[in-house]
Design brief:
heterodimer, A: 368 residues, mainly alpha, MetI-like fold, 15 helices, 68% helix, flat, B: 332 residues, three-stranded antiparallel sheet, 7 strands, 63% helix, disordered N terminus
């Protein structure tokens, strides 16, 4: 039997139940009995939850501030008025009220700098310079004492500026230490330096941050000569930097391990010294290979700054606790914590979205 | 950073290397001596007698909610430390089980063929992991404290939730037969059931729900790391999806996932110190009380660091041994 087509045959349409939105829906949500049950159960539970949240958080909620008694009336859902009432306390802590515009400017500066740092075409030395000047400006704004700004000691700082500075300065101060530790640990030679790096990294990573913070606030005064004193914020910042360094060092070491041996051999063949090889060949490649991992460490420590609550630093988390404990507005902790959670979520999800995008778009390095 | 030209372990005596080692030794030793000297001078000037003999003196601070019986003013500081350690381990153990259960369900949900399940599980992971774990804990604590008083609490499916704590139904053996024993309010007391204090519940819920998001990501990644061909082969053999998952995929995924999973578990152990923030008497909180009681800062801090370091290092070296064994077998 032979068949010869005399003209072009148009492709047949897909079977009716394999195309179109209805078929796609069936494939994705109702493929089997089990899948259908899961879909229906999840949809029902989700709808119920959404409805409860809507009635509590929007329909029955009070947005306008008519005092705490209005919120305690029966039938009232969420009391968002408390967030408005406590907003300045949550964001800026006990920073002098009239001067809080300074804290606000400091926050905007750091956030703008974080946003600028995400642009890859700005990744050059001037960016570091810009960071240094922004941090200096942050100090001028927050401490004051110059340009007619009144002096505010750092035990009166609070809220978001403290959270931001702990995370950014902790990372910045921990970074050089991390590179040193990673290079020491990665070096092929045994010695005191390597043993110290291994011991420091492993011990620091094995104890909780909270214990390290307690250690810093209790022990640093004991380590210093009498009469010397370090402010509580600085103590915690030091502990933070030392702690981050151990985690960052392992990330950097991962980058160092990814450098092919041929690079070192080529550099040696060219007669480059070990210092030049490390600074100009190994480190630039190692660091750029682990940028997404560094961003992830930053996210982890941005969240971990909340732990400074326990040593009495007034960060965003402490400010939330203080706002929730107000005697006049008692019982509205849920609303305050949800608001603060939203602030943390905004920062962290933006950063993790960025880190995931970096991982996709950064050119893969290594041997071809 | 030594270049390839360096003679690692060579026979030639390397003067430069020896000099650097001597310098490093002197620096490190000098720094340690200076720290020791400063600390002892400071302690002396504050009139603090150093040493660990305070451990055997009776502790005036009570320890509650502990599996170990503790009587304030009679039992020693050492016993208080042990009670705190047991509380830490109890919290860690229960949180690990809970986080693993939720994490496995959510992680498999993200790989499900059902699109709605995928979306819900992805939403869970995003919402949980982008908020600090301390905020989770404090949030749950504030919720528990808003529950009705014990006298007004209505049991719900055998669970009694009040602002004094959560009572869960327990498995009791009544004459050899297992039976579900429901908690019941009897005057000012509750009879039967398992009791969780508000602090314990808040820590457990906060830490477990937070860590579950990370466990879910590990489950997703390690199931994804198993070759696609394995799924195709089992479906060609006619095995069901659940049989495949349980007997073919899980054993292979576990080998990939166990090392990161163990570091999440260590994270739970370290995060159990957040107990300090809500006032649950774990090891850290008790040590903190001891520190203010006795003023023995150096000794107490040494005990704290040693406790967490020993447990963490023991687990991580066990994990290293496990990985090493797998490598020897030629597995990933």
């Amino acid at each position: 039997m032979r068949f010869v087509a005399t003209q072009r045959i148009a492709p047949a349409p897909p079977p009716r139940d394999a195309a179109g939105w209805r078929a796609r829906l069936r494939l994705r949500l109702f493929r089997s009995a089990g899948s259908s049950i899961v879909t229906i159960a999840l949809a029902l539970a989700g709808a119920l939850l959404a409805w409860r949240l809507f009635t509590w958080g929007v329909r029955d909620a009070l947005f306008a501030n008519h005092g705490p008694e209005a919120c305690r009336a029966p039938g009232v859902g969420a009391c968002w008025a408390v967030v408005g009432e406590k907003l300045r306390l949550i964001l800026f802590g006990i920073y002098p009220y009239a001067q809080q515009w300074r804290a606000g400017c400091a926050v905007l500066l750091v956030v703008a700098m974080l946003a600028l740092s995400t642009l890859r075409r700005l990744w050059h030395w001037p960016l570091l310079l810009a960071w240094a000047s922004v941090l200096a400006l942050y100090g001028v704004l927050m401490w004051g004492g110059v340009f007619g700004l009144s002096y505010v000691p750092d035990d009166q700082w609070g809220g978001l500026p403290v959270t931001l500075i702990l995370a950014t300065l902790g990372l910045a101060a921990g970074f050089p230490l991390a590179i040193g530790l990673a290079l020491l640990r990665h070096s092929p030679r045994r010695g005191i330096g390597k043993a110290f790096a291994v011991a420091y990294i492993e011990l620091t990573r094995s104890v909780p941050l909270l214990a390290v913070l307690f250690f810093a606030s209790v022990m640093i005064p004991l380590f210093l000569p009498q009469g010397w004193d370090v402010s509580k914020l600085l103590r915690v910042l030091l502990a933070f930097a030392g702690f981050i360094a151990a985690y960052l060092a392992e990330v950097v070491r991962g980058g160092l391990q990814s450098i092919p041996k041929g690079q070192l051999e080529a550099a040696a063949a060219l007669g480059l010294s070990r210092t030049v090889t490390t600074l100009r060949i190994v480190l630039p490649q190692a660091l750029s290979a682990v940028i997404p991992a560094i961003v992830n460490v930053f996210i982890a420590f941005f969240k971990a700054t909340s732990i400074v609550v326990v040593v009495g630093i007034f960060d965003l988390m402490t400010a939330a606790n203080r706002a929730a404990a107000d005697a006049v507005w008692q019982g509205f902790g849920t609303e305050i914590y949800l608001f603060v959670a939203a602030v943390y979520f905004a920062f962290c999800s933006a950063m993790s979205w960025y880190s995931a995008r970096l991982q996709r778009t950064l050119p893969a390095r290594g041997a071809p | 950073m030594a270049g390839p030209a360096a003679h690692a372990g060579g026979v030639r005596w390397d003067w430069a290397h020896a000099l650097r080692q001597a310098l490093a030794f002197a620096l490190l030793g000098g720094a340690l001596f200076l720290l020791f000297h400063m600390t002892s001078a400071n302690l002396q000037s504050r009139g603090i007698h150093s040493g660990f003999d305070f451990l055997w003196k009776p502790s005036p601070t009570p320890v509650s909610d502990s599996p170990l019986h503790f009587e304030a003013g009679v039992d020693s500081y050492a016993r208080a430390f042990v009670a705190g350690a047991l509380n830490s381990l109890k919290l860690t153990g229960v949180a690990i089980v809970l986080a693993t259960l939720i994490g496995v369900v959510v992680g498999l949900g993200r790989l499900s063929a059902n699109a709605l399940a995928r979306v819900v599980c992805a939403g869970y992971v995003e919402a949980m992991r982008n908020v600090p774990v301390l905020l989770h804990v404090v949030f749950w604590y504030s919720l528990v404290l808003q529950l009705p008083a014990l006298s007004d609490a209505a049991p719900w499916g055998g669970v009694l939730a009040s602002n004094r704590g959560i009572y869960l139904p327990a498995l009791a053996f009544d004459g050899g037969w297992p039976a579900l024993e429901r908690p019941a309010v009897d005057g000012l007391e509750v009879r039967g059931g398992v009791f969780m204090s508000p602090e314990f519940f808040a820590l457990l819920a906060g830490i477990a729900l937070y860590t579950a998001a990370f466990v879910a990501e590990i489950v997703r990644a390690s199931v994804g790391a198993v070759e696609r061909g394995q799924w195709e082969a089992t479906s060609a053999l006619g095995l069901s999806r659940s049989t495949t998952l349980l007997h073919v995929i899980a054993p292979q995924a576990l080998r990939v996932g166990l090392p990161p999973l163990s570091s999440e578990y260590m994270g739970i152990f370290k995060n159990s110190t957040l107990a300090v923030a809500v006032g649950y008497q774990d090891f850290m909180a008790i040590s903190n009380t001891m520190l203010t009681d006795t003023g023995q800062a150096v000794e107490v801090m040494a005990i704290v660091m040693a406790f967490y370091a020993v447990v963490s290092l023991a687990v991580s070296s066990a994990m290293h041994a496990f990985e090493h064994r797998n490598r020897r077998w030629g597995m990933r």
